[in-house]
Design brief:
two-stranded antiparallel sheet, two-stranded antiparallel ribbon, 4 strands
């Protein structure tokens, strides 16, 4: 039983109607860049509470699908937040700084 919980926790699985804040960070494969103009800022939490990271713009729809699945059934609070972060390309990877 414990191994099932650990696997679910490690994968960041959220169950329907959860009160917890589901977050996910983009994999490195979604971050390659040559220039800052390649990068966009994306939300990484279901509650819109200023949890942002950056990915390559080419993966915008892929990330949207990840978050749509991750946040399906999320019923926790939602914030109204503006990020002070900006997407940048550093060492060939998009990052939020």
């Amino acid at each position: 039983m414990r191994s099932v919980f650990l696997v679910a926790f490690a994968l960041g699985c959220a169950t329907a109607n959860t009160e917890s804040i589901a977050t996910d960070k983009p994999a490195e494969e979604l971050r390659p860049c040559e220039d800052t103009s390649d990068c966009i800022l994306v939300e990484t939490a279901c509650d819109s509470c200023c949890d942002y990271d950056a990915i390559n713009e080419d993966f915008r729809e892929d990330w949207k699908a990840v978050m749509d699945e991750k946040c399906d059934g999320f019923s926790g609070g939602v914030c109204d937040c503006e990020s002070t972060l900006a997407p940048v390309c550093t060492d060939g990877l998009c990052r939020a700084e």
